[in-house]
Every structure is written in structure tokens, then in C-alpha cells.
Amino acid sequence: MRPDTIVLVHGFWVTPRSWEHWVKRYEAKGFRVLAPGYPGFEVEVEALRADPTPIVDLRVPQIIEKFEKILDGLDSKPIIIGHSAGGAFTQILLDHGYGAAGVALCSAPTEGVRVVPLSQVKSTFPVLKSPANHHKAVPIEYDQWRYAFTNTFPEDESRALYERYSIPVSGRILWDSVLANFQPGKQAVAVDYHNDDRAPLLFVSASEDHIMPPAVQASNAKHYKSKTITELKHYEGYPHLLPAAPGWEAIADEVLDWALDHAK
Fold first, then answer.
1. Number of domains in the chain
2. What is the per-residue pLDDT for 216?
3. Residue 155 burial by CB count (10 A; 0-12/13-18/19+): exposed, middle or buried?
4. pLDDT at residue 181 in the model
5. How many whole angstroms separate alpha carbon 242 and alpha carbon 237?
6. What is the CATH number of the domain that holds 53?
7. Which alpha helices (H) appear in the chain, and where do they start and end?
8. 58 is in which domain, residue-wise?
């Protein structure tokens, strides 16, 4: 049966508002579209800036648990599309048996992916430069946003997106993701790369992505050794904030077509 529901998973430094264009486009195609926020992210961007307590308290297992409860309540398996950290969470959800197909856009890596390009270090350095940030919600300054998210946008559009979408990030989760490859046992972003029962997965990389460059997507995709379909599609000229970049409509349509064609 053709999936009739799409679940969109947002990344860090933003909220479900970052999916606003994709929600409308997919709804216009007749799909039921869900774009839940992380636990405590049920409020608007402005409220999270004013009181970032939900960001400080955020943990990856809580995020996964919330999405799994939502997915458990659906009548059939949906297409799951995640961006940035949401791409890593999409991989985890698929590994746990959820979804008919998944798409990871400019995805953060799951455990075991050790490729760390210089631009990624520069993008996250304002958070990782101090271990004290481990217990904080760390705001993103505009210059960092410009470099990490909107480096291909005109200046006025970049600033407008910063005002509309940006929120602080959980220093704890960012630090824990870095340390995951150096701690024994499975950590919060671990998946079974040999899971033959996982739904098909498409990685999408963007050539101008500074925070999750194409090398990260390529390495993450190569880690999968299962018989299940795992593919990688690359787009030239796009930044990390791909869901809002000019031409996003064609990408939204193409990844949806791929998911429908490969859905289990």
C-alpha cells in the first residue's frame, strides 16, 4: 500500500518551523504531514529563545521515544524525512523498525562515522570550544549561522532566516555526539549497520554544506552493510539549510518520489 503519511524530523538550532514550506507542498499533494518538535519544543521559536530550558533538558533517547510514540499511533508506516540531526534520528527510527522508507538530508552522522572535515569543526567550534557548554543551551550567533547554514544565500535572506528559524542548541547532545566514538558500548546515536529488516534509506548531500559536508554523508552511507537499499544522492550548489534554499521544491519532489518508489 502506498504510504499516505510523511513525518518530518527537524535538526538542531531550528524547530519544526524550518519545515514550513515542505509541509504545505506535501499536503498539497494529498499527504498527511506531521512535523513534530522535540520534547519541550511544542512552543514557538521566540519562546525557546526567551526560555531555553527545554533545550538544556533535551536528551536523544527522549527525542526518539517521542517520535516512536507518534509513529506507533499511525495506521500504516509513513515516509520519514529528517534534516541534519533529524537525519541521524531518521536512521535510528528506521533501525528500530519504523517507516516505509527514509530520507536523511544533510544528515548528522550515526555512531562509528569518524569523518570530521575542517568546515564541520569550524561550524561547531563555538559550542565545542568549551566543556562548560556541555550543560548549557548555546545560542548561535549570526556569523556562525551564516557560515554553517546559509552560506549560499544573499545577505538579507540569510538574516531573515536567522531571525525566523534559529534557536540555541543543546551543548550536552553536541558534546555527547562527539564523544560517542570514543566511549565503550553503544551510545544514543548508534544503529545496526547490518540490519536487513530496515526500510530503504536515501542520503542526500549538498556540495556547499559546511556543517555536514558530503564526505560525512558518503562515509555514513558506506557504513551500511545490510542487504536493504541504501543510496546517496548529491546536489551541487546547496548549503546545509537545503529545505529553504532556492530550488528546494524540486528536491522535495525528487526525494518523495524516491521514497514512494522504494517504500516497503
1. 1
2. 95
3. exposed
4. 53
5. 10
6. 3.40.50.1820
7. 20-28, 45-50, 53-56, 60-72, 85-95, 118-128, 142-148, 155-165, 171-179, 214-223, 248-262
8. 5-262
Q: What would the grid cell of residue 118 be?
A: 575542517
CA-to-CA distance for 110 and 113, rounded, in angstroms?
6
| Average confidence score pLDDT of the chain | 92
Write the Ramachandran bin of 251: left for phi over 0, alpha for psi from -120 to 50, otherwise beta: alpha
Is 222 a residue whose pLDDT tops 80? yes
Residue 79 bridge partners (DSSP) = 6, 101
Cα distances (Å, whole numbers) of residue 255 to 22, 102, 110, 235: 12, 9, 21, 12
C-alpha cell at 114: 569518524
Q: Which residues are paired to 36 by β-bridges?
A: none
Assess whether pLDDT exceeds 90 at residue 171: no
Q: Which three cell numbers stand for residue 61?
A: 533517547
The whole-angstrom separation of Cα 95 and Cα 219 is: 18
SS3 58: coil
pLDDT tens for 44-74 read 999 999 999 999 989 999 999 999 999 999 9
Cell numbers found for residue 44: 514557538
pLDDT tens, residue by residue, 79-110:
999 999 999 999 999 999 999 999 999 999 99
